[in-house]
Amino acid sequence: MQSSIGKAFQLFCFLVILIVNHVCWIQAQGNSDVNSTESQSADPFLLSTSLPVETAFTFPSALPVIPSGGGNFGKGRIDLGGLEVIQVSISTSTSQRVWRTYEGGSNSMGLTIFQPINLPPSFFTLGFYAQPNNRLLFGWVLAARDVSGNSLRPPVGYVEVINTTSMNINQDGAAYFWQPLCPDGYQAVGLYVTTSPLKPSLSQESISCVRSDLTEQSETDTWVWGTNEMTLSSLRPANRGTEATGVHTGTFSCQPLNVPPPPPLFCLKNTKFDLSSMPSRNQTSVLFQSYSPWIYLHPDEDFLPSSVNWFFSNGVLLFQRGNESNPVPVQPDGSNLPQGGSDDGLFWLDYPVDKNAKEWVKRGDLGNTKVYLHIKPMFGGTFTDIVVWIFYPFNGNARLKFLFIKSLSLGDIGEHIGDWEHVTLRISNFNGELWRAYFSEHSGGTLVEACDLEFQGGNKLVSYSSLHGHAMFSRPGLVLQGDDGNGIRNDMARSDKFVDAGVAYELVAGPGIEEPPWLNYFRKWGPFVRHDIQKNLDGIAKSLPGLLRKKFRKLINKIPREVLEEDGPTGPKVKRSWTADD
């Protein structure tokens, strides 16, 4: 017996020694990895060769071959009226790296600034390009050629906006940010960056100023990089929409945080806004077939999309205020819907009266789903937005993540008849390349660069529709609308329920496109539901313990009311984004 205990004890000691040795080995490896990381961070060359920005983004497949269409779409140059511009895609052959920092910004990976080079004869730089290091290289700036004789002028001087000499950051030497001082009647649209304290040359080959009537006011587009002393942001036209003339130049601004701001930078203006650079109908179809989204529904989704024609053909009724007892069946093409007007509550749509028919319509039909395309000029006609609208006969109820409760049903809160969602494809009219995609979400949306999109089946982007609410997202997972890890759940996942938007689509609006009657129905696509949302929420709150009740009410007050609405929505043409920027 003692022998057995002794052997067991020896075996125990042996195992302890093995475990201790193994732990020591792991710690040694960890220290080695830490030392290796510290060594790498001290070596700019190693850092530069491992940054995503060192690799240029390429689409999974070749860009679409643009058929001839009679206009100027895809021809590489656009005349803005006395000023011809080209889009310079940033690459090793079209630009040179001017400066880089290895920290700060997105994921604390720093930033790189590029100067356009090797421009075609008579074309001049308007500004430099800045990109976070945590993304694959994907960007552009415009360069310009003077075709009127007085559209461009060299600067008369420079003002130093800021330099990084005293900044405690890992950088390729100090950077100096210069803003051109322009002659009277001309404006600067971009910055010049050097690694020397000497002012840049005043020659037009360095940077050009643009005649004032060919410029417009600009504003911050996206935050690019920053420290406690400065911030860099890309610029966009302040006034944007289908009739706006401001042109996105791809340049950036630099804002010192502890000194007075520099003079404003401007964007370009298309004074020849004739839509001649927009794609033809045939070209639009080719573009959409190339980039059309796959829309994935959640595996637990009960309420599927459908076509508008299917919705109307299955007994949907048109009601009129004051004559509610005599609803009228809607024609399959919507031709008997009231046209124009406003969302005045005079008319609304509802399901058929029969219970089984109502449930049938409510569930939608993937096999009879179609998307609807709105073609919009953007940034003075230098880009085309293909807005992809999708219709759901029903929007399901909202669910809440609250503290330890992963999914709390809010009853019928959030339910409503009719649901319109959209994804927008923003395409360059210079070359037909997809630049960004916009995903509509409740109370807003997100613009995503093409280099950050998920693709499937070539260059077709992937979109995810949230469970019940159908908001659009670029990635699967959970997104909460609230704060502190609590809020309305948006659950996205792949499943065998999906829409390949390129299979069934219809162009319903845009230059030269005849609009279907249902598009000009401006009233509600569902009835006004007389639920007392606050009463329902109070009922849920009262079922919770006192401390949780207070937290619940505080959370609900932070959630956008439209997420909780039960009123039927208006159609696409009534949305603010119809004529504005997404």
From TrEMBL:
Residues 1-28 form the signal peptide. It comes from the Eukaryota. The keyword Lyase does not apply. Keywords: Signal. Coiled coil: none annotated. This is Vacuolar protein sorting-associated protein 62. It comes from Arabidopsis suecica (Swedish thale-cress).
